[in-house]
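Regression report. Comparing outputs from two consecutive submissions.

Submission 1:
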Amino acid sequence: QVQLVESGGGSVQPGGSLRLSCAASGFVFSRYWMYWVRQAPGKGLEWVSTINPGGSTYYVDSVRGRFTISRDNAKNTLYLQMIGLKSDDTAVYYCAKDRRIDYRSDEYDYTGQGTQVTVSS
């Protein structure tokens, strides 16, 4: 069955860095668009970044230039490198899989359990 397992979250001071990982299994990872989304306390789910099977990347304006999404198809792993973290980045971060193989639908059929990122001085 499909599994997405995030790791790498933690508590950092403003300006700090973290690298999130998402280990994927149960599907042909290399053929799916993958996403990072986040949910801040008391708020709804927010799209953060997307990467297509070929490695093209997309970002919400608030993180562009600070976050880098990447993937290692040989390791079935998705990453999110975050630098210059701000308090507004505090959230639970989830990786998500597109529901369609080979195409982008912006609809997720699976997410992981999430990893907490807290940015505070």
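Submission 2:
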Amino acid sequence: VQLVESGGDLVQAGGSLRLSCAVSGFTTDDYSIGWFRQAPGKEREGVSCIRRTDGNTWYADFVKGRFTISDDNSKNTILLQMNTLKPEDTATYYCAVGCRVSMIPVDAWGQGTQVTVSS
């Protein structure tokens, strides 16, 4: 199983970015993919999650109404559309199998993709 994040960039406050999580190695769709983030000096936190079997989604309160997670089955990619970005969204963003930080093995985290929002 391999997940690779991409799409991070430097953007001005109020702008948008779309992150991609390329997924490979699964033989079933019976799993969830979560997006997480970690800002310098802060703990990693959950941002959003999607269950591939039925498309059920979850969002952290601080991104509701601004971020949208989706599943591009044709490309086997999980997307995170981020709109109305704020400086406090600045962080390294990661995708992983599962929705809870505490349930993801330490060695399962990838390199992440850096999102920087300037004020």
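Expected: both submissions complete independently.
Actual: both completed, but the second showed a warning that disappeared on reload.
Relevant detail on submission 2: The radius of gyration is 13 Å.
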